[in-house]
Amino acid sequence: MAKEKQLVYVDSKGKRLDGRKQNELRPIKITAGVIPRADGSAFLEWGQNKVYAAVYGPRECLPKHTASPYKAVIKFNYRMAAFSVPDRKNPRPGRREMEISKVCGDALERAIFVERFPNTQIDITVEIVDADAGSRIAALTAASVACADAGIPMRDMVSGTGVGKAGGKIIVDLDKAEEDAPDAVDVPLAILPNSKEIVLLQLDGVMTQKEWKEAYKAGVEASMEVYEIQKKALKAKFSEKGVEKK
Ligand code: CDP
C-alpha cells in the first residue's frame, strides 16, 4: 500500500502556507469606538476575520430573575453573519454560537469588576462579518477593547490567540487552511496579560505534554503582542478626542 504523504504546513525555511513564521500572528488592526450608539465598541480585523463588538451597560438586568444581587451579569452574544463563511450560515444561533458566547462571557467576567455593579447586566454583542478561523479569540479581543472603551472598570484586558499544530509543527494563530490540516490541533487561548491568568482554554485535538509546553509559551508571547495592539487602539481613540493630549 502506498504510504500517505504528510502535507507540509511549515517548509524547510520555517515558512507557513501564507508566508508566516511559526510564531507569527496574522496582521491585526483594531479601531475602538466605531458604533456611537453603543456605550463602547470596537472593530477588529485579524487576518481575514472581521469582527464588530458593541457593549451596553452596566444597565438594568432584564428579565429580573436573571439578575444577581452580588454582581453584574455578563450577557455575551457571539453571532456569525450568514455571509461570513463559504456555506451560508443559518442565522439562527446554533450550539456552537451558544458555547462560544458562554466561554467568552466567562473569560471577560474574570477581567471586569462585576462585583461593583450588583443587579445589573452588561450586554456584549459580537458580530462576525467574515470568518477564517480563530473567530472566538477575535471576538474576545474586540469585546475586551469595547468594554474598556465603554469605561467599564476592569482589572485587566483579555488578550489571546489560537495556538496549535499542523503538519507536526507547533504554530501560532492557525488560519482556516491550517485548522483543516489532517493532524490539526487547535487551542484557543486567552489570558489576563498582567497576571498571565488563563481565562479561556479549549483544546480540539491531541498534543503531547512537550508540545503543549512549547505551544503554551508561544501562545502567551503572541497574546502579549495582541495586548499591545489593544492598548494602542484605545490610546488612539482617546488621544483623538483630546483626553490623553498633553
Ligand atoms: O472561529 P473559531 O476557530 O473560534 O471556531 P471554530 O468552531 O473552530 O471554527 C473555525 C472556522 O470554521 C471559523 O472561523 C469559520 O471560518 C469556519 N466555520 C464555517 O465555515 N462555518 C460555520 N458554520 C462555522 C465555522
Keywords:
single chain, 246 residues, alpha+beta, four-stranded antiparallel sheet, 4 helices, 28% helix, binds cytidine-5'-diphosphate
C-alpha termini separation: 72 Å
Number of strands: 9
Q: Within the largest sheet, what's the order of strands?
A: 1-2-3-5-4
Task: Please bin the fraction of helical residues.
Answer: 25-40%
Shape: globular
**Chain-averaged pLDDT:** 95
Largest sheet: 5 strands, mixed
Overall SS class: alpha+beta
Strand content: 25-35%
The count of helical stretches stands at 4
Helix-strand sequence: EEEEHEHEEHEEH
- Low-pLDDT residue spans: none
Q: What is the gyration radius calculated from CA atoms?
A: 19 Å
Which small-molecule species are bound to the chains here?
Answer: cytidine-5'-diphosphate
Task: Describe this protein's structure.
The chain is built from 4 helices and 9 strands. It is globular. By secondary structure, the protein is of the alpha+beta class. It has helices spanning 95-111, 135-149, 176-179, 209-240, and strands spanning 28-32, 40-46, 49-60, 73-80, 120-130, 159-166, 169-172, 185-192, 197-201. The strands form 2 sheets. It has a 5-stranded mixed β-sheet with strand order 1-2-3-5-4. Strands 7-6-8-9 form a 4-stranded antiparallel β-sheet, with helices on both faces. 28% of the residues lie in helices and 28% in strands. The protein binds cytidine-5'-diphosphate (CDP). Cytidine-5'-diphosphate binds next to helix 2, helix 3 and strand 8. Residues 85-86, 89, 96, 131-136, 176, 179, 186, 188 line the site of cytidine-5'-diphosphate (CDP).
